[in-house]
## 1
Amino acid sequence: MKDMDIAEVSRRTGVPASTLRYYEEKGLIASTGRRGLRRLFDPAVLERLALIALGRAGGFALDEISAMLAPDGLDKMDRGRLDAKADELDRTIQRLTAIREALRHAARCPAARPMECPTFRRAIRLAGAGRFDVAPIGPFKAEAVSVTRRKREPGNVRLE
Amino acid sequence: MKDMDIAEVSRRTGVPASTLRYYEEKGLIASTGRRGLRRLFDPAVLERLALIALGRAGGFALDEISAMLAPDGLDKMDRGRLDAKADELDRTIQRLTAIREALRHAARCPAARPMECPTFRRAIRLAGAGRFDVAPIGPFKAEAVSVTRRKREPGNVRLE
DNA sequence: CTACGAGTTCAAGCCGACTTGAGGTCAAGC
DNA sequence: GCTTGACCTCAAGTCGGCTTGAACTCGTAG
């Protein structure tokens, strides 16, 4: 298969041309050359874009993704980093699972106010949604979690 | 317990005062009144903030959260909506699980390039990371998924 | 040879969720 | 009565991941 122009890459991946240019600018993908002004892409870019999409779907930032993909454009990734990311995802999944349970429970819990329901409160605690020392049940701890948070972590502790 | 000023709410929840003002402006929380210029909050706001944190941790937008929390400030939420959100979370969890497996596998798969490994490709497919009709194995479908995407869904299909 | 359309560059805009900063107010303690 | 410092408002800034628009350049079909 010969080199493709940006439109074909876009068509085959569903990724808009503007995004492809943006990715190139960020160094996530590379064009093999130009014909006139036009970029030419090696078919291997399709794989790379699939991996990028995978990362994005996993909630990773573009910078993290480019750190995971090998610098030379091959797809050998750093094993340690991959495992770390998997662990991160694992924690996220556990948190989301707890939240899902909380929602399901809240949807059919007979308690007038969800917060009065021990099951719900437990789910909140598991969700690590923060320590909100609301009256009824004692204070609990929350370990720091991160979804897509940047600097600060509101929703997390700061014990007085 | 008497009404609290913004600093106390902040201290007890870990949510910065600026964020509390912002939430009030958006109608997510309400102050019960003022003493001079200063906002006063009913202790019930702590619960509400816990629920908001829960929603945020679940990846929901503030607008979605305020739609889930009752307009009158009580915490009765719309059951249908809650279930829908739980389902949404469920799909997200499944996707993330597939991605986690893909990462774990990639970390120790002997194949030189992950994309040549059927297990990895399968994980990508499950992840719904898009249809990237890379040569070796045939095209597959991806149903639209949404993490925190806004309008467009790059990474998803557009069969020619 | 020329016009066309698909590609290009670069700067600016957008969205959500906040944060920051300048300048103002006000209750309480000395 | 005055200072202090916590709180206030409002506008603007930030960050990531793109998109959009204006102005321009080419290869190719007619």
## 2
Amino acid sequence: MSVRHGLLALLERGPRYGYQLRAEFERTTGGTWPLNIGQVYTTLARLERDGLVRALPESDGGQRPYEITPAGRAELALWFASPIERGDRPRDELAIKLALALTTPGVDVRSVVQTQRTATMRTLQELTRLKGSDPGGREDLAWRLVLESMVFQAEAEVRWLDHCEASLARFAAKSTSPSPAAGEPDHGPQSTVPEPEESILDEPTETTRGTR
Amino acid sequence: MSVRHGLLALLERGPRYGYQLRAEFERTTGGTWPLNIGQVYTTLARLERDGLVRALPESDGGQRPYEITPAGRAELALWFASPIERGDRPRDELAIKLALALTTPGVDVRSVVQTQRTATMRTLQELTRLKGSDPGGREDLAWRLVLESMVFQAEAEVRWLDHCEASLARFAAKSTSPSPAAGEPDHGPQSTVPEPEESILDEPTETTRGTR
DNA sequence: CGACACATGTAACACGTTACATGATTTG
DNA sequence: CAAATCATGTAACGTGTTACATGTGTCG
């Protein structure tokens, strides 16, 4: 719902038409997130259908501006007032990938981790490079924060990858013979067996963090 | 593309049918990400259409298992071998929200930040609570890492929010009194989550890794 | 029997992306 | 004039979600 609400927020500043909205959206995020123009129009159509915006008469230049309605303002206020919940976010593809890599035969998890780490570090360098020219205007503040958001996320990813590597090493050290024989090709029909495996005690290491 | 490749990875272990795939997917991620069953079937249909999986004869119980094809194995290997690029990920709704809040009239950015911070901290506590029961099996390793991935992301988010608040304060101070105060107290009102404000790029020891 | 878990599917919709078609205006 | 930019839209597809329809098997 980010684009939907984003357009609504831009219309709160005053009537805008499609092309203008895209330009303004990309400008406040510093061009980091290019916005598809087709989606602007379809989203505007849906917003109008839902009564959150209203089309204004077409101007001479062929522009078709929209304005926000009271219902739209209410919706926008609600968006700003309520936090974004964890469940609303998409699945993290990287986490899925690593979790599945762990139990997929013939996959070198360590190299998956390393490959990702290299790529993310490259991204990180690119981001810090972008952060170079940086005056202190209010609009620049916006896209600088957006950039830094990506930096923080990327840094967290690298830390997590390092943590994964450490966990993998610890696990490998614990099971001296990596003999669990990967997946069992066996499986009678209709057995969704939970497959209860051995449970080794895990010594609590530095994994107790930031809960306060 | 996460579900598509996820199912492919599960099928690499051996033939599975739809229901089994969902159960297995949710199990390896610890039920953190419930997988819609309808999507499993449509995704399987698309995978079959693309020649990455092949349907096996229906068993007695009415199950319709699929097996991975060589093309599917190739695709999967490619997935594991290539990093997930930044551009492939969706726009961060929170960053958009804050960037737009900055230039939208009548929006109290500080309270938006605070609301989100509270919500994320609650999520963080919930996550660490979930991490309680934790044996050291290989499958448990997977979902523990998934959980910790979310923890790392949430921590990064809180740090970023604190950083935003500090930036806002700095900006407000600059606007009200045009004379830039040189030595301002760096951090915002509260920093419950420790860890660096500095980028890990500043630490030369870390950056030299992984570039093989 | 009836409720529930298992199992497969379809339909409809929201959102996002890419590509294409169509004009108007500006500019080299 | 030709090309680029501005501006609006449509079509098709992928992905994800929700809801519904349809069966079978099991168990109290």
## 3
Amino acid sequence: MLRKADVDVRKKNVTPDQIPYSTIVRLTQYLRVVEKLDELGVSNISSAELSDETHINSFLVRKDLSYFGEFGTRGVGYEISVLKRELKSILGLVKRHKTVIVGAGNLGRALVHYSGFRDKGFDIVAIFDSSPEKIGASIEGFKIESVFVLEEYLKSNPDVTIGIIAVPAASAQFIANLLVANNIQGILSFAPIAINLPEDVVYAAVDLTTHLEIISYYITNPDARKSYSLRA
Amino acid sequence: MLRKADVDVRKKNVTPDQIPYSTIVRLTQYLRVVEKLDELGVSNISSAELSDETHINSFLVRKDLSYFGEFGTRGVGYEISVLKRELKSILGLVKRHKTVIVGAGNLGRALVHYSGFRDKGFDIVAIFDSSPEKIGASIEGFKIESVFVLEEYLKSNPDVTIGIIAVPAASAQFIANLLVANNIQGILSFAPIAINLPEDVVYAAVDLTTHLEIISYYITNPDARKSYSLRA
DNA sequence: CTATGTGAAGAACTTCACAGCT
DNA sequence: AGCTGTGAAGTTCTTCACATAG
């Protein structure tokens, strides 16, 4: 099956859909390390050193990177500046992403305050809520707007591509539908419920209690612990 | 390699460490559905229906559950009340877990306010911060305490088993060390940095920007999308 | 001599097909 | 007849070993 490769997988005999999801998760970890070292003025790193920093096997580090090109120099390692640039390019972080937050409860407000999003290229451009007491209040220079104008807002701002859902479980599906109907391409949901979406919408769910439940399992069952772990 | 099985894997020819991590993640999803249906008064569910609710293949639903016992009735399905009880038991959710939060910034405070933790069996018992302006302030009936008394607190409250780290990247490792040195068995970290921990400490990391970066990748590279997805 | 890049081997996970109960 | 439970098959992901390049 031959497909147009919009990821630059050069002369490789892998198509983009053969690249493991876990690889993408790990790319973000490499980027984290590389950004830190870049700030510290380090100029070069080997897969073994990247392995030390991330606890990801060095074979896997090289395999992951090799899906996208040959970024290293044999006998030497990877140049930090090159690796950083390439990772950002692969992950689509060269351009900034306009993002709306729906839900101005504690979590939604915490997310607006969180500076990490902007630092990494995600610009929060508006926040919405359904509660009359919250609408009109200001956070970080934003006025909380009514969810009833969300649709209109997205129509007049078609460059907003990502929506963050921080509403209660009961209204999550409704909001998700609204976002999808108005051009949003990616959704990050914090609602503790499964949401149904069309296949072509990119969707990630973070359920805070899920993580605690998984921790509970491994605390309760120490023999179940593995040496490896997959985390996002 | 034969090991003592503290998970009740009965006559099965699997040891606890052979149960996939992904299975545990999915168990929490089954639990979510089963709790919802239980509230709605539904008494029975088949693996096919569980599959519809979770978008997890029904073969996999049955395989996941079969690691831990035979909870269903052939020809009929699973009794909701039984499944709920068993899932909670497997995940170690029969007893409640005392949990401390370290870091009273926006995120830490949002977590304290979040009622979902208590609903699922995780009791927030204290919150700590290093900033003099925050120490002494009250949230949800808790006085924010100094991180300098964290160690003392944990020593006099040895039944606290889980720590949530919501401090900046720079102090995350320090706090993690402190928690581990004082009997904490599981750590959930929101710090955008890798933390080094002894192997026997259960550790989960939630990096909020990581999820957005992964979304960015799949938005930017539509051909890379897969039909399956692993989410926590 | 060092460290990358990668086909091939191996391990882990998922899907399948159907035997086994109710 | 219907749906679970599970060995076996199939697929995906990780590890390995080594050819390759500096």
